[in-house]
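so my prof wants the structure for this chain in the tokens format not the other one, which i didnt know existed until like an hour ago. anyway here's the sequence
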Amino acid sequence: MKKILILLFLMPIAYKAAAQQSTAIADTILVGSIDKNCPGGFDAFNMFIRKKTHPPAIARENHKVGTTYVSFIIEPDGSVSNVFTILAIGFGMDEEAVRVIRNTGNWTPAMVDGKAVRCFCRAAIQFSADESKHEAWINAKRID
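here's what i got, hopefully its the right format
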């Protein structure tokens, strides 16, 4: 009787341990950050954004500025997928931000138990202008 009770007690523990190990690593999604997942950190990401992002003509003509927020997934191979805007500002700035994030190249994937897993990231791209000097510029903003 004692052996049966011990067996019944240990069965759920063994089942739970087996279930934890059967979780597919490829399906895991962690929340990442630009600092940890971008080679070179936030400074390298900001420099890339400044070089590759261009203010859309319609935004410049209408003197529109603002910050668009983009989310994306870093795949286990370091590629970027599922890029979309979280907070849209219009005038072509959202589409430009998505285009640039899609072209960022390889990122450093998140690791779980020594294996690369999917990672969710967010980025903010700020479109600014100084109309008196007829200048426009773009920066990445830290969000956490």
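also thought this was worth mentioning. The longest strand covers residues 115-130.
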